[in-house]
Amino acid sequence: KEEEVEEKKKEEVGSCQSEPPAKRVRLEDLGQDGESREDAGVVEKEPAERKRARGQNKSRPCMKPNPYERSRLVDVLTSSLFFFKGCAEKCYFGARCRFLHDVGEYMAAKPADLGRSCVLFETFGKCIYGVTCRFAQAHLGDGYRNIVNADLAKQWEGKSLVRNNLSKDLQHQLRKRKFNFKKADEYLRGLAKPHGNGGKGGKATGRSTEEQEVSNCTTHQEGLGDSPKCPALPEQGEDPKPDALQSPGPTGGEEASSVKTAGPVTDEDMIKLRSCEKRKLEIQGKLYLAPLTTCGNLPFRRICKRFGADVTCGEMAVCTNLLQGQSSEWALLKRHHTEDIFGVQLEGAFPDTMTKCAELLNQTIEVDFVDINVGCPIDLVYKKGGGCALMTRSNKFEQIVRGMNSVLDVPLTVKIRTGVQEKINVAHKIIPKIREWGASMVTLHGRSREQRYTRGADWDYIAECAKIASPMPLFGNGDILSYEDANRAMQMGVSGIMIARQVPVGALIKPWLFTEIKEQRHWDISSSERFDILKDFTNYGLEHWGSDTQGVEKTRKFLLEWLSFLCRYIPVGLLEHLPQKINERPPYYMGRDYLETLMASQNVDDWIKISELLLGPVPTSFTFLPKHKANSYR
């Protein structure tokens, strides 16, 4: 028997060796996933033919000039008012410094100025970028001195134009993890405790009866003020007596000694606000500019504010990046002084990071509300459990909303979609829960995650959800491109409308839409008026990002991203019927003048040409591809 088994093994080995060459696959021909290169090539070719121009340009080239300037000037000389002679002694690094210390040498190698007038000098009386400004001839005197208009500069002295900046001290605390998250830690400890009802400690549903009474007070008696049925109760896991009464002596340890006090003790220090006593978000009937990733920057919001936007919101900020003190993420929270009703939008997937981030912002920045992004459809966010994925993770969703609401002194709002899958709407089930958890308002985008920004928004479903959400305000979002669309939306019973985003609709295509809605008219805006809007955006960008080479190129980048949407606007005078509808892509057409034709072009080179009219010639080897493939035509 053993001999028979050995003979069978030999036959099997021989049959494997005698296989025809077509069946054998060499290891070097296999990819990482075990498929042959030939098969992989076939698979790649098929979607290339069927693939539509949609989604992100993930492989687009890096557009940051590297470096912005080959010969940089030392910072101490950038905006100095003194002569450059002898300044090398003032440099901390001395002879080891790799920057230039001779202003004359720097000016000889500096590219030519882009214009004769500097917007910073004309607006504020001085330019902090000095000799590095690309419009420096407007404010440089003899010996490269930086001229200052004393009368104009005095008018702006002491005024804070942009708020919510990240200080170096706060950044250091966040990076060293020394920031005190007292309220958030209390709430998270309550989540970790096992509850008496046999539920898991991580579930937010295991609340005490006292907390349920407080939340019911918020839900049913909102806006009624003080009531004997709504007692002021401490948070979960907190002793009703204040810490100051429990330990009058210096026995609080390090935690008590680190608390700095200033001035007399007020009622707010001793008594916590109840949910029904929080500041109300009264924006019903107002025009709300949605948080727009990439394009919803501060200069763009200033443009929309000038045209009549009532409520503005910063770009989506990732909570983990904010907790790490990343300057680029904190820049998304900046608020211009003209934004009277302003909020920030946070994205996250877990209650610990979201609650801590909410407490951090509550203590450090000035906002009127905080919004949770539960509508982001992109894979990068969805696969980590954030954005639309929270609609399917109700336990974590509840913990996030309750936790953020417990640490915030300002209203908390939530932005959601109809659902994840195209034909399965779940928003009507989630909205009553959001109201119970303590949110002040919900914004509903009338599309699912699978639809992204394609097809029409389901306003009938939004109207149904508005009735379910009552008395909590619900704002509708989707397909608002004219005042007729806005009127039709308001008749659906929503509390207001949010004007957004990237499909051929909303503020990115025509920021003057706010004016049209308020004045109830179609504005046949001319190409010269539209060009003036681009000029204002450029000036606002130079104020915000700077007038040196780096600031100019950053302004150009965001201008080009916006132009990739502006080109979809069809002038009212050329339309066969009013108003313009969603996803109407006309054939190539000639405008009423050269500039209107240029602005209607979907060619990237034409967008670059418009940017050169405003910001001068682009750097050598400059390339640009828009963030979204639907906008990239060559």
TrEMBL record:
Its EC number is 1.3.1.89
- Per its UniProt entry, which superkingdom is the organism in? Eukaryota
**Annotated spans, Disordered:** 1-65, 190-264
GO molecular-function terms, A-Z: flavin adenine dinucleotide binding; RNA binding; tRNA-dihydrouridine47 synthase activity; zinc ion binding
Pfam families attached to this UniProt entry:
Dus, zf-CCCH_DUS3L
Q: What is this protein's record name?
A: tRNA-dihydrouridine(47) synthase [NAD(P)(+)]
**Signal sequence extent:** none
**Which gene does this sequence derive from?**
Dus3l
PROSITE patterns recorded for this chain? UPF0034
**PANTHER family to which the protein is assigned, alphabetical:** TRNA-DIHYDROURIDINE(47) SYNTHASE [NAD(P)(+)]-LIKE
Q: Where is this chain compositionally biased, Basic and acidic residues type?
A: 1-13, 21-50
So what does this thing catalyse?
A: 5,6-dihydrouridine(47) in tRNA + NADP(+) = uridine(47) in tRNA + NADPH + H(+); 5,6-dihydrouridine(47) in tRNA + NAD(+) = uridine(47) in tRNA + NADH + H(+); a 5,6-dihydrouridine in mRNA + NAD(+) = a uridine in mRNA + NADH + H(+); a 5,6-dihydrouridine in mRNA + NADP(+) = a uridine in mRNA + NADPH + H(+)
Tell me which cofactor or cofactors this protein depends on. FMN
Per its UniProt record, what InterPro entries does this chain match? Aldolase_TIM (IPR013785), DUS-like_FMN-bd (IPR035587), tRNA_hU_synthase_CS (IPR018517)
**Limits of the DUS-like FMN-binding domain:** 289-526
GO biological process: what's one of them? mRNA processing
Keywords linked to the UniProt accession = Flavoprotein, FMN, Metal-binding, mRNA processing, NAD, NADP, Oxidoreductase, Repeat, tRNA processing, Zinc, Zinc-finger
Task: Give the family per the record.
Answer: Belongs to the Dus family. Dus3 subfamily.
Q: What class of enzyme is it?
A: oxidoreductase
- Could you tell me which CDD domains the record lists for this protein? DUS_like_FMN
